[in-house]
Protein 1
Amino acid sequence: MSCACLVLTEVVDDKEVKSNHRSSFSSSFPTYSSSSSGGELIDSRRCRSERIFPIYAMGSSDSNRNSTKVIVDLDSSEDPIWDSIKAEAKSEAEKEPVLSSFLYASVLSHDCLERALVFVLANRLQNPTLLATQLMDIFNDVMMNDRGIRRSIRLDVQAFKDRDPSCASYSWALLYLKGYHSLQSYRVAHALWNQGRKVLALALQSRISEVFAVDIHPAAKIGEGILLDHGTGLVIGETAVVGNKVSLMQARHHIRRHW
């Protein structure tokens, strides 16, 4: 099987500002034309694959395809994404009564997206020496006092719903998708790192890696509107920078389908 090393394109404010790739593929893989400013693929399969997997890295900066325009106003009393999540959870509880307690505890008992996410993450990451109640206190303190994170968790969940074909609703990302969980857990660790609480940030990094198989250094810089599909085996190092509106697709066995 051929292998590849990819350096993601950084996308900032809808503009591609860095594009590098190093690859070692068999001749059956599609190639890029260096004369094209958009990194246009010679292989016609890209046209078909991008309808399913819109890529905002490695040669395409068209971030509006198949996506919903979202404006996050944290000062407004309205939160349409949170309203949708509650409606979805209520509907799912009616369809699957066996999950009603889980859905109530995870979503319907909370008054905002932040607190629901805190509950979900704390219960995913807890262990005998790092209790769920301790994690909830840490996560709640960070999220409720960081407007950047509050904005990012909404733009990220919108990215999952818009750009991940396997994510049918906002609540699916919030409750079940470890790519979303690991990304939001990283955001808390990153905030702690910037506060000087580096030991706690590294402890969270270790636990995130153990639970989700995603290793993101808390000093790494990651933008908003990110889709992290599965993420199993993903490593993002201390000096890495990932821009806004980037999709990281799982492509171990079927690289061509994402190009």
Protein 2
Amino acid sequence: MSMSMFSKVNYSECIFVGPALKCNVKEDFRKNYLVFFTIAQVPQRFSAQNPCTSKSTCQDCIQTPSCAWCYDPEFGGNTRCFQPAFPITPKEQCRDDYVFNPDNVMTVVSNLQLSKAHSKGSSGGYHWGTGYEGSWNASESWESKGSSMYQQGEAGQGSGGQQIVQVAPQRLKLQLRAGQSFSIYMSYTQAEDYPVDLYYLMDLSRSMYDDKEKLSSLGDQLAQTMQNITSNFTLGFGSFVDKVVMPYVSTLPENLLHPCSDCAAPYGYQNMMSLSQNTHLFSRMVKQANVSGNLDAPEGGFDAIMQAVVCRNNIGWRERARRLLVFSTDASFHYAGDGKLGGIVKPNDGACHLSHEGYYSESSYQDYPSIEQINLAVKKNAINVIFAVTGNTIGIYEQLAKHIEGASTAKLEKDSSNIVELIKNQYEQISSSVEMKHNASSAVSIRFFTKCLNATGASVNTNKCGNIKVGDMINFKIDLEVLKCPKLKKDRTQTIQIYPVGINESLIIDLEMLCGCNCEQPGDKFYEENSPVCHNHGTYKCGICECNPGAFGRHCECNADEINNMSLNKTLGCIKPNSTTGAECSGRGTCICGRCDCDSKSPVENIYGDYCECDNFSCERFMGELCSGETHGVCDCGVCKCKPGWTGPNCACEDSTAGCYAPDVIGGEICSGHGTCVCGQCVCENTKESRYSGKFCEKCPTCPDRCLEFRDCVQCQQYHTGPLKDPDVCSANCTNVPVPIAVDKVEGNDTNH
């Protein structure tokens, strides 16, 4: 809300959102003026919750949610960082043309239509809340209300209508402020007849001989099974043993040629058949492959996985296909650090090193990769790893799969006879679910919400959906928030990928974090080095001065070289002697050249004093009025100074004793001589022998002389004795004496006697 509209706010329609007051704007202020004065007190009550007032630069200001910066050169207020939705005094208002309050902005760069997408039980007509209205569909342009958003390009298919699209949109540009959550939307569908690349990576140590033979006989069956799933299917084959270095492999000359009977020479990894649609070639290559031998139980499978994943051109991984790597073994694995046993200290570089013959050329020179290296490579190349392992090792591979994105584990029979069914089941399990992941840095929070296939249910905070069939569409609402602006400017621009695990498609977000102000950059109209505004000793930016070394003050008017012991004395004159807090200017002003420039709360509420220790609004009040009102006294430095005729800590007492004299008593004393006059009223004295009461302390029911005064009348009235016992005489003399009441004892504070 602009400050010029301040007088048009209907405060009866305001609500608090955190510390901010958000209001609807009405043109007719006259109808709402009675409410204005009530809500106008809000800044005083909630100023302690205002996160903006403590920000002294434009950059710090806009990195605080809901804050805006005033760079008006003629601004006369104290705080340039403010909350636009919060009512402020006229003095603190900023002209609209000089308010920097950047909004979150989204640009849709690419939004191609999903391939053959239709919804079964999942509606594309979600209403997701703030910023979006109406039906949202990945193939349609997006509508936004209440946020800055526009689209570039149109939805459509690739050339010839052949491009397969399973994720929409494909690319966005976002400009986001820190601390403000922003929602985007994306859809995923499992396309029909989506290509599949299956690379079979097999342990060919001697113990896997029968598995190799079984795989070669089942090659055609495997191909046929996968072709029933997709007509666009490729198959490849690779094998591994271990590093040809002691102690993994025997390096005796004869063992290097034939480590076991009917065995080929050992090797690390070999790509024996790149991905191809020639499935008959697969069976032949598996048949021709020879087993080999090694010494220790763990194998060099990690070397093989790394090369099979990162050597994309050599293996033949396609850009638009679901990539499956089936890893088959009956043994555990070597990992990073094990290479030192063979004198190999060079870390694995995670790069492709395949010779023309398909062998891993760095096998004997680089250490095994780590689990994290394998995971990063698999994520980067969007490959689903299936560990098809025998029962004796399935436990360790189940644990391994937890640390590799998109990996799964299945039990392989000892002779691999169930390999076809295993791969079919694993593929169906993988393809029937979707899990969204992202690669955002820790500076950005990303949360996923979806209904999955439950159109009538509520959206839940999850990135996974299951039981998906071909053609089903899953809609995701994604909340992004820049948690904190990175210190380095280069880190404030990031490219984020949001992707379904195992699919080489993603939503790419080009994120620009709005962490700075244009007026803080050289070349801007409001940026000037060695500016006259800053006494030529500082840079003028965004309406304030950033002083050069040796200068300080609001306008760099102070010279540190002119102050002895600068580090000690430049603020010494601003700290009150014997201060317990040590706060400059009592925390209520700015120290300028060793003197306090006190803050100003309002035109009528002033802060003053050498250390801003005084004010005219912190005195005692009576009936809600400071010093009982202007006619009674004034507040000076926290103490009421009463006007003539008034006294007391809040000037509520009359400074007169006239009300303490009993009327019609000539020569009477204040409070009958038995009390003191306080604030125009008697405060009676009380002792063991006597307790005085009454407005003028004229009564004393326990004093001895009172008994003598009423003795004769009490005797005649109560007991018919004494000198006045004759009834007529008693009545004549005791007319003004009340009839006595017999009691067991007399209370000291009894005012009836």
